[in-house]
Specification:
Blueprint lengths: L1 H25 L3 H12 L4 E3 H8 L3 H13 L3 E5 L7 E5 L1 H23 L4 H22 L4
Antiparallel strand pairs: 1-3, 2-3
Length: 146
């Protein structure tokens, strides 16, 4: 239980600090940045909204509220499915890609600083391997999201 408590605390501390940096520097939360990054990596910059909700671990209504904010800012668009009216897609706009490219260097540098201040290279490699063991089974059982 100590390990779980420490993992939760570390996650909270890292996400709080990284989100604060993104909000202060670029007006985006960490979840909003992650959505832009996921869309940038998706084929044609498009993903089903339900898949985005799964990837960022938000409820469908939570991701809808976030996408509405990003859409109001011109960073994402909404696309309907021609075959099924119940399915909607989020689409990265040119402005969204530009915002992501603007944010990425500072965000990556902040994450690197946070980890490099606490771990040497060998410890970071071990951390990557250990955390990979935790996340791999959950990712594998859900299958692809595209």
């Amino acid at each position: 239980m100590v390990a779980v408590g420490r993992l939760i605390g570390a996650h909270s501390a890292l996400t709080t600090e990284l989100s604060a940096q993104l909000v202060a520097d670029h007006g985006l939360t960490l979840n909003e940045y992650e959505v832009l990054m996921l869309l940038a990596r998706a084929p044609d910059g498009v993903m089903r909204r339900v898949d985005l909700a799964h990837e960022v671990r938000l409820s469908p209504s939570g991701v809808t509220r976030m996408l509405d904010r990003l859409e109001a800012g011109g960073l994402v668009g909404k696309r309907n499915c021609e075959k099924d009216a119940r399915v909607t897609y989020a689409e990265l706009t040119d402005a969204g890609l530009a915002k992501l490219e603007e944010c990425a260097p500072g965000h990556v540098a902040a994450a690197d600083r946070l980890l490099a201040d606490r771990f040497d290279d060998d410890e970071l490699n071990s951390l990557v391997e250990l955390l990979g063991r935790l996340s791999a089974p959950a990712d594998d059982e859900c299958g692809p999201t595209a």
